[in-house]
Amino acid sequence: MATTTHTNCLRCGRTLTSAKSQATGYGPTCARHIRRAQATLTDYKPHQIASARELIEDGAIVPLKSAVFIAVSTDGTETYKTAPTGCTCPAGLKGSRCYHQLAARMLLAA
């Protein structure tokens, strides 16, 4: 499994200095904001919340525009455009709420 080192926070763009922050892609303040936002989003199933957290922790969801993100699929072979209201993943195209949308909501709420 390849690891990615980030030099800037994926949320605010500030330079990351600690090894932990560089590994996760988020500085301590942004990580704290994301954790707080996660606690407020309780209308998803537990496995969706776990998958969204993992997506954020792996730095596999990156802002594209103000409310649009690029998210990596579970197996890492595809990318999807996602927003809090929709996603181009198979579940999102069927009209279901997916964990990519939840991850986008978490990041925007932070």
Automatic annotation (TrEMBL):
Organism encoding this protein: Streptomyces capoamus
Designated name of the protein: SWIM-type domain-containing protein
Residue span(s) of domain SWIM-type: 68-109
Superkingdom of source: Bacteria
A Pfam family of this chain: DUF6011
UniProt keyword Zinc-finger present: yes
InterPro entries noted in UniProt: DUF6011, Znf_SWIM
GO MF assignments: zinc ion binding
Entry keywords, A to Z: Metal-binding, Zinc, Zinc-finger
KW DNA repair (keyword) present: no
Lineage: Bacteria, Bacillati, Actinomycetota, Actinomycetes, Kitasatosporales
Signal sequence segment: none
